[in-house]
Amino acid sequence: MPDFAPALAEAQAVLAAALAEAGRREQQVAAVVVDRGGHVVAAARMDGVGHLVLEIARRRAAAAMHLGEPTRDPALRLARDPAEAAQLAGLGEILVQPGGFPWRDAGAVVGALGIAGAGAEDDHAIGDVAIGML
To answer: Which domain of life does the protein's organism represent (predicted)?
Structure first.
């Protein structure tokens, strides 16, 4: 049976993996883990990363949570579909850009990870490494 939300210890381990991968790439990022409701379980930002970048990471995580898939593919899809993009933009709390990853437990989405600050492709790559540790 899946957990209701990512456990704090697991969330912190995933954040540590994300920050380590960002450091390996000589990037500075913010990383956020949210639960099924899009509420923060754990968050971290590297030295020099602004608070707005942390909010971007949270919204990317919320988008991945609600979409149930990494946000890179929907972001590419939305670039070709302005009507769907406008609908999602109206929700306000989600940001469909590369860097969001659903967190699964026993196949069910129970939360998500969001990464921001290094640019779309690096954010996606950093998050992919971090969420891959689960």
So the answer is: Bacteria
Q: How many domains does the chain have?
A: 1
pLDDT in tens, 13-22: 999 999 999 9
Q: Residue 66 has what pLDDT?
A: 86
Q: Is residue 3 part of a domain?
A: no
Can you list the alpha helix ranges (DSSP code H) found in 72-119? 72-80, 82-89
Whole-angstrom Cα distance, residue 1 to residue 98? 29
Report the pLDDT value the prediction gives residue 86, as an integer from 0 to 100.
Answer: 73
Q: Is the sign of the CA dihedral 76, 79, 80, 84 positive or negative?
A: positive
Tell me which residue range forms the domain holding 56: 8-132
Residue 45 lies in a domain: yes
**Which amino acid appears at position 6 of this protein?**
P
Helix, strand and coil percent figures for the chain, each rounded to 5: 45, 20, 35
Mean pLDDT, rounded, for 88-110: 87
